[in-house]
Design a protein that fits this description.
- With 131 residues, the protein is an alpha+beta fold.
- It has 3 helices and 4 strands.
- A 4-stranded antiparallel beta sheet has the order 1-2-3-4, with helices on one face.
- β3 and β4 form a beta hairpin.
- The protein is elongated.
């Protein structure tokens, strides 16, 4: 069954080292993320149990840790790292990541948006049908 369900995480702020210029490598800057995670939410809609869905508290912690650890130079590379973190949960079939760097330029907010799919050889998490 194909679904069009998504979990949305918007305005996620992370302070991290990001940028290629020497002064950007010394101080944390804020990036702001919007995420849309495509996944089948039928099971959790029926059960109302956290174990039946993507735990976005855990996911947000993993995204923050990834960006802090990676110390990316390019926002494109940072967005890719976030997408990979999201796709580490096999229940996420597709993720769209919008990453903005508000302080990049005066008077404008630079950003990127990427969409990545779960690799085709990733095993699906078994889905129990509810009567």
């Amino acid at each position: 069954m194909t679904t069009h369900d998504e979990i949305l995480l918007e305005n996620l702020e992370v302070a991290c080292i990001i940028g290629d210029l020497p002064h950007e490598r010394q101080y944390q800057q804020k990036v702001v993320l919007d995420l849309a995670l495509a996944c089948d939410l039928a099971k959790v809609c029926a059960s109302d149990h956290l174990a039946d869905t993507v735990n976005y508290v855990t996911l947000v912690d993993a995204i923050r840790a990834t960006l802090i650890e990676k110390r990316c130079k390019m926002i494109e590379h940072a967005a890719e790292a976030v997408a990979r973190t999201c796709l580490s949960d096999p229940r996420v079939s597709r993720v769209s990541v919008t990453l903005r760097k508000p302080g990049a330029l005066i008077g404008v907010c630079a950003g990127v948006r990427i969409t990545r799919l779960q690799p085709p050889d990733t095993p699906e998490v078994p889905h129990e049908r509810t009567p």
